[in-house]
Specification:
The structure is a homodimer of 239-residue chains.
Chain A: H1 4-16, H2 29-36, H3 40-52, E1 56-59, E2 63-66, E3 73-77, H4 81-87, E4 92-103, H5 106-112, E5 119-129, E6 132-141, H6 159-166, E7 171-180, H7 183-189, E8 196-206, E9 209-219, E10 224-229
Antiparallel strand pairs in A: 1-2, 4-5, 5-6, 6-9, 7-8, 8-9
Helix pairs in contact in A: 1-3, 2-3
The structure holds a DNA duplex (30 and 30 nucleotides).
Chain lengths: 239, 239
DNA sequence: TTTATTATTATGTCCATACATAATAACGCA
DNA sequence: TGCGTTATTATGTATGGACATAATAATAAA
């Protein structure tokens, strides 16, 4: 008997083979249910998942049509620095460089959505893979959102690991860019001034309050981010 | 009456508020169905979607438990260069620099999964935002996978746009990195040699055959990629 | 002809029920 | 005590029927 996964795969095959071309309507659920010998609810489930994945668009009364031009999107796993380093088979080490509670700079205040001069926590630290510097971290923490940070000295456990435990679910915005290493960055990363670095900038928030704003800088010659984006629900063992 | 979306939101709220802590079991479907006054199928649908989103893990007989440590993942929209430039309000222009059918280099052969020396298409071109160079493109096309490329001169329509139309559904692997501009890159991007560039490398394939391998280089001072990653199914108007 | 009303249609969702399946727990035997 | 068998349990999936809803088409009124 055919399951909704079978239906889902068959429908995906018809889409990706252009049997049902982009922009065109596909047969309605009733018709497909009869063709496949299943209940309409089964077809509905299959096609709804395909719609969630962005391959078709459904509208009541109008029917279901194949989405004209899909934008490519990649799912990037934002690396957790310790795991990343340990997965490379290297020894992970963390070093705190600075931890101050100081009035927020203009930029920090803007990013944290607090008024300039409000006290916030500034942290600078770095992470090593073996003996090689891997990541240089410059962070602001909004103490109004995470007051418990005052009690942390961040000497043994890094601020990111602590925050992930303290505020496990938060929204985030990431920016990836290439830049020339600043004086301080190049020094801590063991690079020449102006050498290319890969910067991940992250801002996280929850219930309207910004939690932290951080810039993670990596040596350009060693660091990269890889994503693999497969067509879902295709023939090749996708469950 | 409560819909499965209501249930989904309530359950997400209990997870993100740590009412149901990480690693712990949550009540089973029967119990929740009774609590919410709905059929078990309704609870099932709600929680299955949450499981697909990666917040809980379900196992028969064992039950459903909150996933211990979620890795942060970001959904990156890979920009389509023309759209990106036009969205910035700039005029898009494309210029072909080279188009040859030549024996694949060692690296190209490896990436295209063909034997070294097999003829493939090499394309070099660039894309402008107004008068400013925005992207420098170095591409190999596997002619065994896309023979129709031989008939294309790529003077008016760029290879990427053509390929997206020719092979609309393909799997992809992306690599993002920061690098120092090569001689050729810096020249075409109007940069100094060694200036930082943001490189997107992409390989696409379909039915086991590699289609194309391309390196897209952007000036580091102008280019960045931004992602926004919200906790799904949360209180704030999701869907 | 324009506008308001009504009918039609495809999808959206729910329910009760049934049975399948995978994982675990309990049991019985050696 | 160790091991193989059986029972139990939570989730997985299918069904037919029902009604809701949004969008469109058809119709009637102004």
């Amino acid at each position: 008997m055919r399951t909704y996964k079978d239906i889902r795969q068959i429908v995906m095959e018809r889409i990706t083979s252009n049997e049902w071309p982009m922009g065109e309507l596909i047969p309605n659920e009733q018709v497909l249910a009869e063709e496949f010998g299943v209940a309409r609810a089964t077809v509905n489930r299959a096609i709804q998942e395909i719609a969630d994945a962005g391959f078709v668009e459904r509208r009541r009364k109008a029917g279901t049509r194949v989405v004209p031009r899909r934008s490519r999107d990649a799912i990037v796993q934002i690396p957790v620095v310790r795991e990343q380093i340990e997965n490379m088979g290297e020894n992970y080490r963390f070093a705190l460089i600075a931890r101050h509670i100081v009035p927020a700079t203009k930029a920090a205040a803007r990013e944290l959505s607090i008024s300039t001069g409000t006290k916030a926590m500034r942290i600078v630290c770095q992470h090593f893979a073996g003996n090689d510097p891997w990541q240089f971290e410059e962070r602001w923490i909004n103490l109004a959102a995470v007051p418990a940070a005052r009690e942390q000295d961040f000497t043994s456990v890094g601020p990111n690991e602590w925050l992930v435990r303290e505020v496990p679910y938060s929204n985030a915005e990431h920016t990836f860019r290439a830049a020339a290493a600043s004086e301080q960055q190049s020094q801590h990363l063991g690079l020449g001034a102006g050498d290319p670095v890969f910067v991940i900038e992250r801002k996280t928030w929850r219930r309207g309050k910004t939690i932290t704003w951080v810039q993670l800088t990596h040596p350009g010659d060693r660091f990269s981010m890889i994503t693999r984006d497969d067509i879902p629900y295709s023939d090749v063992a996708s469950v």
